[in-house]
Design goal:
Helices cover about 30% and strands about 25% of the residues. With about 400 residues, the protein is an alpha+beta fold.
Length: about 400
């Protein structure tokens, strides 16, 4: 029977970071992962540049049944702490937009840093190993694996959620939690494109491939970034953000002129060129295809000179609050994260340990803590991994 002090299941961002901290504390640490290479989500994130954190980390930018749960870990290991580690390694980075930080070079720099720091801390990494049942035994846990059982005083479950199953994502962490009597908050895809029914898609098909700045509101929460029309529905940063707040049956509001009321501009255009088509005037403010579509949505007929103030106000209002009703999402296949997870009500905020099962920790995406798009989920991985690494 192989024995170790700390067994970490999952060699992603959270698991490797936890391993480094545990190893540096002198704990004999073993990391297992079913994948062929560590840190695959790090490698592909941010278009291969890894959006590794955000300057605007705040508890209200994380979704959870208990949004303040994440605060302890986020305050004890901050975005500035992670930035300092990259700086010490000479890994160059830049701010792209909205506080989002990316590597100047390839994301593999971060993976290489984590793997090297694990090795320097005495951590053993084994890949291609499938974890199985975990059961409590005297002085710790026994974990079944595809290469034989392992006993450990502490076990950290860092296997992530269900997003991107083609990379091997499963619900393993949730099954472990439930086997120890820990509740799991309903899971669903997050940061994911929204889809429409066939009838709505037919109406919108002429807009496929078009990207515009917009303000999207879902369940009272607004995001102002790019909106992309697709062959299945809607995508782009603004939609991905809103998707975490959207639920089936709920409409979304699309503001195509954020920060502007076009009523005065439309009236001025009517006075200056009454023979102009409404779509021609709209095309001064929107892409031509979208201008033509919005004209048809309103049912306006005739040149702009034939339109009353009330009609122009109605058009302007539609541009500010165009209600669309998605029927679903593209699912875990394209979702960047999993909403929900192991209930925070049963975890210690400082250590990420299950209160009823001393020595069993859950970190990263497996927990019911989901950040906004833009580096928030990586920061939760670093912070939760660090916190558990101080305790195991």
């Amino acid at each position: 029977m192989e024995k170790t002090d700390v067994l970490i299941l999952g060699a992603g961002a959270a698991g490797m970071f936890c391993a480094i901290e545990a190893g540096r504390r002198g704990r004999r640490t073993l990391v297992l992962d079913h994948a062929r290479a560590p840190g695959e989500k790090i490698r592909i994130s941010g278009g291969g540049r890894c959006n590794f954190t955000n300057l605007g980390i705040a508890p209200e930018r994380f979704l959870s049944r208990n949004p303040r749960f994440a605060l302890s870990a986020l305050k004890r290991f901050t975005q500035w702490d992670f930035i300092a580690r990259l700086d010490a390694e000479g890994i160059a980075w830049h701010e792209k937009t909205l506080g989002q930080l990316f590597c100047d070079g390839p994301a593999t720099q971060i993976v290489d840093m984590l793997v090297r720091q694990m090795r320097e801390a005495g951590v053993e990494l084994r890949l291609g190993v499938e974890p199985g049942e975990i059961r409590a035994v005297p002085d710790g846990f026994e974990v079944a694996t595809s290469r034989g059982p392992v006993r450990a005083a502490s076990v950290v479950v860092a296997t992530g959620g269900k997003s991107i199953p083609k990379m091997g994502a499963t619900g393993y962490a949730y099954r472990v939690a439930e086997s120890f009597g820990l509740p799991v908050v309903e899971t669903r895809p997050g940061l994911v494109p929204l889809t429409f029914a066939a009838q709505e898609l037919e109406r919108l098909k002429e807009l496929a491939g078009l990207s515009v700045p917009a303000r999207i509101t879902a369940d009272g929460v607004c995001f102002e970034e790019a909106l992309l029309f697709t062959h299945r529905g809607l995508s782009g940063p603004a939609i991905l953000q809103a998707s975490s707040y959207w639920r089936e049956g709920m409409p979304i509001a699309v503001n195509l002129t954020p920060g502007a009321d076009l009523s005065p501009a439309l009236r001025a255009a009517r006075d200056a060129g009454p023979k102009s088509a409404v779509r021609t005037v709209l095309a001064r403010h929107l892409p031509e295809r979208l201008a033509r579509h919005m004209e048809s949505v309103t049912g306006i007929e005739g040149p702009i000179g034939a339109q009353s103030n009330a009609t122009l106000e109605r058009l302007s209002q539609l541009l500010r609050q165009w209600e669309l009703r998605p029927v679903g999402t593209e699912g875990y296949r394209t979702a960047e994260v999993t909403l929900g997870g192991v209930s925070t009500d049963h975890l210690d905020a400082r250590t990420l340990a299950a209160r009823s099962v001393p020595g069993l920790h859950f970190i990263g995406e497996a927990v019911d803590v989901t950040g906004w798009l833009g580096g928030y989920n990586f920061q939760w991985a670093w912070s939760s991994g660090w916190a558990a690494g101080q305790a195991v």
